[in-house]
Amino acid sequence: MRGRTVIAGVGHTRYGKHPGRDRVALIVEAARNAIADAGIEKDMLDGVFVKMANSAPSILYGQQVAQALGLRPRMGCALDQGGAANVSLISFAALAIEAGMIEMALICYGDTPRTGSHAVYHRPRGEEAAYGWYSTAAGYAMIHQAYRNRYGAPDTHFGAIAVQARANALGNPHAHLRVPLDMDTYLASPFVVEPLRRDDCCLLSDGGAAVIVCSARRAKELALPRPVPILGFGQGQESWEVHLRPDLLDTMAAESARTAYRMAGVGPEDIGVAQIYDCFTVTVLQTLEDYGLAPRGQAGALALAEGIGPEGALPLNTSGGLLAESGTPGLQLVIEGVRQMRGDARLQVKAPKAGIVSNQGGSMHTHATLILGQPA
């Protein structure tokens, strides 16, 4: 599968608040932009893969999206893996293309949790809600505390992730949050669920995003500009709820990365830029270590000492990530990864050999990894 499929086009809406906008309309806008970026005709798309909307899940959502796009795809679906769904859908599309079932797929997402319903994020968590376990943040607070306890990580290790995300988003015209953050401000920010501070938590954002996947052969036939090869992908899923896990820091992200590295024929040492799912700062530290990009317990120290900015040792979330660009679940990270490999990102990293993207859903329940290469 290495390099046999490519991401041929990317597109998105502005991120932030879209009062009164329908989530499907946001997908249509993002898809139109991706089609224009790829330089194709809409009717070339014969696969439509949609990440389920968090704010309002519905039956046959994928078909609603295809109808709004004016398409009758040979293959289509809506998938729920939480925030891991978008990279997973890219891998499923690549497999379908390789199997000859479709030729060109649209992978897309749109939602309005900022101005619509965000109940899914603060719902009670089972019987444990009687003891105060409400919201997505509660599970991550347990993971954050476990990480601090095991490694003795100071708050500045988590703060380094938040501060750099804000710095990367400052000049991004599409970003939801373009407000600078320094370490003192981070340390003074209020607790949401202790030990999680406000700036440890990602945004809730309205917006839409889309990418187009086809075979490398098809991209060459159509002379598409700068298709980015998909070198590898992988998945891993944790079956247990947070409070049932014997080890809160043992995740399936490591297995997801191993699968992707093996397919891509590269290792952590080959990664020149990373777009890591940053729903919370602890997620970034844990994923960097699971991906072999930092020693255990040392991701925060690496961020502080060697830097995670565009000119640092490991450039990270160069458009601002979920903490600053958009709280939408993960496709914006893929788009930034594509732009980095094409060489047209706003904060461009110098000639990365390969880029890695992580997606993650639930409370570190689902993991999906994507490795991108340089265009031919």
Automatic annotation (TrEMBL):
UniProt organism field: Paralimibaculum aggregatum
InterPro entries per the UniProt record, alphabetical: Thiolase, Thiolase-like, Thiolase_C_2
One Pfam entry name: Thiolase_C_1
Superkingdom, taxonomy of origin: Bacteria
Protein's name according to its UniProt entry: Thiolase
Span of domain Thiolase C-terminal: 234-373
Segment forming the signal sequence: none
